[in-house]
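Notes from hallway chat w/ T.B., transcribed later so I don't forget. T.B. wanted the structure written out for a chain they're using in a teaching module, and asked if we could keep both sequence and structure tokens in one place. Agreed to drop them here.
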Amino acid sequence: MDNIRLVRDYMRKKDLSFDVRDDVADIAATLVEHELTGAPVIGADGVVLGFVSEQDCIKEMLNTAFHCELTATAADIMRSDVLTVDGGMEISVLAEQMCGNKPKMYPVTENGTCVGLITRPDVLRALVDSTAECHQPSR
């Protein structure tokens, strides 16, 4: 019997997100500390407003590092055309999307509110679990 695996079962609970007013240097330090390549920018109502990546931080910090004028915020560097996935989506559907060179991580939403983040390693873990289940001896 197939056990359907859902995004909400493998996502990282909303443990890291940024506010539009957060400073780029603080964002970069937080990403390094949490070993993430990016995180969503969330509004007060929990809605995803954008996404900030390591690359966004690197570009901004490189442009301003020599002048010591780093004053940019998440609002200045975030991508606002963010692809999100619903927590009820099947992992297999998301895995297919990720094979099409889509983002390596997605904010997870339910009822329009950000509830977590799912990454390629999370999807891979779900697929490993599914494969291991296939090799269980039947009774």
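Follow-up for T.B.: Residues 7-134 form a domain with the CBS-domain fold (CATH 3.10.580.10). Might be a good example for the class.
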